[in-house]
Each structure stands twice: as structure tokens, then as C-alpha cells.
Amino acid sequence: MPRRCSVCKIECEKALQCSKCHGTIYCSVACQKADWKQHKRSDCAKPASFHKLDREMKKYTRPNYPLGYAIEIQNEMWEERRRNPEEPTHCDSCMRRFRGIPITEDEYDFVMGVLEGDAGDLLKCREGEYDYIAAHLKEDAGDVFKRCAECDYMICEDCSKPENQGIAFFDRPRGTCRCHTANFGVSYCISGPSYLDGDGAKPYHGDRHPPIAGSGYDENAYESKERRCKTCGVIARCLKKEHLKDVMPGMK
């Protein structure tokens, strides 16, 4: 299956990969050399244990592994939901029910039964956590705060707050929809760099050109000349390459 070059974004049948992190793909030696100065300070600066764990995760999420099958089924379900949007019932992030839609007894009993059964031993819930989960299931999430017109992802207001985002390892951060190049209709290329980035499994690493005012960056963080954004096609001053993977302004 063709993979995209991390620099020029073209598909390459015979891809090269970084020999240290084994995760960054290039179409040619020229692209690898062009990216090395930045790459060695970001992805390759991570400890070897991180890269080992990352490789293991990629291995076990392949289509022929159980987790890979689960991801494939989940993607198919979301594709069907994109074609046929659902009536709002619960927040897709925290799973709490929206206002006026209480959890049914069957749903509540099922979740608590899982926690109290064999899965509960594996999860090793600490004292008091069962009560917290039980209360959380019955808690009202309020009204739908954001709903993506493209992928139909819905979240409550709490899940949109920056302090509740964190950096998700297995799935997307709480405030991120399932679209690859936009978050709830706002293109990532006009957003400030943040960890609300792609659909979790496929982070966005394209051009960014957020308005300087309010972005958290000064003019020196932007390229000196305007050019065409490779994501949206708008002519703008884009952020310099070293800022494209910032977690947020001032944080690498």
C-alpha cells in the first residue's frame, strides 16, 4: 500500500524510512536530507522506548490483528454514520447522555456488570471508582455543544474546554472530531498549532497559517513571503517548518 512522504506528501511505492525512529516516511534521499534538521529535534529526539512502543502499537493495529479488526469495524461504523447521521443521544467523547435523554437501566446494568466481572479485575478500579463511574453514567452532559457536519461527531461543552483535552494515546483528544484536515469544520491550516490534531490515528502535519493576531506567535515565527497553502490553496504567510508540530505556541 503506498505511503505518503512526510515532506512533499506524495505517495511513494518504494518508501524510505528514518533508520532511528522507523516511523517517518520519505520518497527520496533528498526529502530525508531536507527534513533532517527539524526531524532530529522532534521525532528522533524521543527516547528509544517511545519508538519501540510506537512500533508495537503499529504492529498490533494491523488488519490481521484483533485490535486492527476492531479499528476497521469502528471506521466502517463511523463511515455509515457519516452517510446517515444519528439523532443526538450522547457525547461521543465522554459518553454522557445529553440533556433529556437518561441512560436506560439495561445500558447502566451492562456497563456496571462489565466492571464488576472479569473485566473489572483487569481494570483494577480503586476504591470509590465504581461509585464515580456509576454517577458519571447518570450525569447529564447538557446540550450538544458542537456537531461536525462532515463526520457527525458530537461533543458536550465540557469536552471542548482546553483544560479537558490532554493528549490521547489510543484515540483522539476529547475536543477533536474524526475529520483529518479540519476540526468541526475549522481547517487545521488556519488553526493555531495544538494537540487537537487529526483523527487521533492520523495526525495532521500540513501547512498552518493562523492569523498572527491571537495565534500566540510573533511575525518571526512565520515565513517571510506569502505562498499557496498546500492544504486549502489560500495564498498566505505560513508558519515556519519548525513550528508545524508544536503542541501549542511556545511548547514543542
Key features?
252 residues, alpha+beta, two-stranded antiparallel ribbon, metal-binding, 10 strands, zinc ion binding, zinc-finger, zinc, Znf_MYND
Radius of gyration: 21 Å
Question: What is the overall silhouette?
Answer: globular
Structural class: alpha+beta
Mean residue pLDDT: 75
Low-confidence parts: 118-123
How is the main sheet built?
2 strands, antiparallel
Residue fraction in strands:
5-15%
The SSE order reads EEEEHHHHHHEEEEEE
Q: Provide a count of the helices.
A: 6
Distance between the termini: 31 Å
Helicity level: 25-40%
Domain MYND-type: 5-44
Organism: Hebeloma cylindrosporum
GO molecular function: zinc ion binding
InterPro entries: Znf_MYND
Describe this entry's structure for a reader:
It is a single chain. The protein is an alpha+beta fold and 252 residues long. Helix content is 28%, strand content 8%. It has helices at residues 29-39, 48-60, 66-83, 105-116, 118-123, 129-138; strands at residues 3-4, 11-12, 16-17, 25-26, 146-147, 154-155, 182-183, 186-187, 227-228, 235-236. The strands form five sheets. A two-stranded antiparallel ribbon has the order 1-2. A two-stranded antiparallel ribbon has the order 3-4. The chain is globular and about 60 Å long. The two termini are 31 Å apart. The model is unreliable at 118-123 (pLDDT under 50).
